[in-house]
Design brief:
Largest sheet: none
Structural class: mainly alpha
Shape: globular
Strand content: under 5%
Radius of gyration: 22 Å
Order of helices and strands: HHHHHHHHHHHHHHHHHHHHHH
Helix content: over 70%
Number of helices: 22
Distance between the termini: 57 Å
Length: 376
């Protein structure tokens, strides 16, 4: 009987707390969303499984010398994993639509307004005693509005690592819910006639322009805002490998094998921060709500900027493409195209929307640099 009692007391069921039960259910929910609903499966499946591992009692897998803790220390605390993913994103991204219509850079910039509005909102709520976030925490939460998972993880790792799990889950959840969240906002802020607007065909972008763009982007941003150089530098390097045409093997590795390997470890490391102690706190609900607000404001800001530019421009601009200014590539561009097709079945906006979409990637990286500079 003593052996049986010892075996029972050493089991995970005996040591299981209510919080761990809740987190196991939440992680199973993430796995369900990733597998059954196909919401950002590459990240939600790995994050969900990492969360399961970190909430099994009696196993120090996510703390101390546990291997998930070591993966987190090496890849997230140093910022290496998000930077490598940004390199892969750069290698997969075609900046041609942005170069063909540089004005769409303003749409990508406008969509970042949600980040700074949410930062001020979080600080105001703290000032009134409704919430309790420091400047660093508020900055890390606000970056969710950029709808860029790697950027959110990078900033959270730099400014508020204790909130990383909640911020990562919120960022990737809202990225996955882009097709659900954005259309109502887009339709609310535009008229039927605006949604029907056809845009002129994009011009052809030369190979020299494509090669020079990532180099000039890095130099200009690095000189003006050095804190944004790591993120934008990796994005620019990945894109240069894609466009220069002389390192196809490296470009292929960055687009496929390397980014896939890092995604696995990134998801598991983020999942290791979904422990009951860290996640089941009042601040988590605040993070989820503020992240939603940031994303909604970013979408609305992009659409409003699109309406303004359409009024001022000689060439018509469909305001719907402004919603693609959040950097959920290419999902936000597809959503803009879908809403446009609903209004006019012959109106193809996809390539036009890719301009502000990739501009949003640049904008979120710049916003991250600003946050790190002033809050770090």
């Amino acid at each position: 009987m003593e052996l049986v009692q010892q075996l029972w007391q050493g089991s995970g069921l005996y040591q299981l707390s209510f919080g761990q039960v809740a987190m196991l259910l939440i992680c199973l929910g993430l796995l369900y969303l990733g597998i059954a609903k196909k919401f950002e499966p590459l990240l939600l499946v790995t994050i969900g499984f990492g969360g399961l591992l970190s909430n099994i009692p009696g196993v120090e897998i996510a703390t101390g010398e546990g291997w998930l803790y070591l993966v987190y220390t090496v890849g997230i605390e140093t910022g290496v994993f998000p930077l490598i993913i940004f390199m892969g994103v750069g290698a997969m991204t075609d900046f041609g639509p942005l170069l063909a219509n540089p004005r769409t850079l303003f749409l990508g910039a406008a969509a970042q307004f949600g980040i700074f509005a949410t930062l001020l909102g979080a600080l105001a709520l703290t000032n009134f005693g409704i919430m309790d976030f420091s400047l660093k925490e508020a900055a890390a939460i606000a970056i969710i509005g950029g709808a860029d998972g790697p950027t959110a993880i990078y900033v959270a790792g730099q400014l508020a690592p204790h909130l990383l799990g909640a911020i990562a889950v919120a960022a990737y959840s809202y990225m996955a819910l882009v097709p659900i969240i954005q259309p109502p906002i887009m339709k609310l802020l535009t008229t039927e006639s605006e949604r029907k607007i056809k845009m002129v065909q994009l011009r052809e972008v030369s190979k020299l322009e494509r090669i020079m763009f990532p180099i000039l982007l890095l130099l200009l941003v690095a000189l003006l805002l050095p804190s944004a150089a790591p993120l934008l530098g990796m994005l620019a390097f990945g894109n240069l490998m894609r466009e220069c045409g002389v390192v196809d093997r490296l470009s292929d590795t960055a687009q496929n094998a390397l980014i896939n390997i890092v995604t696995i470890f990134l998801g598991l490391a983020v999942g290791s921060k979904l422990s009951a102690e860290a996640f089941l706190a009042p601040s988590t609900l605040g993070i989820l709500l503020l992240g939603m607000v940031a994303f909604a404001i970013g979408t609305a800001s992009g659409v409003i900027m699109g309406k303004i530019m359409n009024k001022l421009s000689t060439n018509p601009i469909n305001p719907l493409i402004g919603a693609a200014g959040v950097s959920a590539v290419p999902m936000a561009a597809r959503v803009a195209n879908k809403v446009g097709l609903e209004a006019n079945p012959h109106n193809i906006l996809l390539m036009h929307a890719m301009g502000p979409n990739v501009a949003g990637v640049i904008g979120s990286a710049v916003a991250a640099g600003v946050m790190i500079l002033f809050a770090g």
